[in-house]
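Lecture 7 notes: from sequence to structure.

We start with a single chain of 127 residues. Read the sequence below before looking at the structure.
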Amino acid sequence: MGADGGYAGSTFIATAEANAAPRYKQMITECSAEDILYSNAFTGVWGNYLRPSIVAAGLDPDNLGPSDPSKMTFAEDRDKIRPKSWSEIWGAGQGIGAIKSVTTTAELVDRLAEEFAAALFYPIGWS
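Now the structure, written as tokens:
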């Protein structure tokens, strides 16, 4: 197909075997690229986050304010001020629109292999 490589990390979050919260897995199947927010507000590092998880954490995704990496800590915070991005604010890539259900890893790998084989046999634009 012309690519030298690719990645599909988010789709593996929505598998039965993934150690992710059930709501995270479901949210990935319900969202699309329009639900992704690119921000550095949570960790000081730019990343893609699911808008619905930001809202569920009680924050306004359109008014997060600037990031301050010097205040970032991974230590337990008993007087929690902001949600922890790795457990309450969830990341995902723009390809999540293609993820329609939570499946097993074996089913996902089989589907990806079948789609790849079909794409090789029927190049885009062929009829």
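The mean pLDDT is 85. Keep this in mind for problem set 3.
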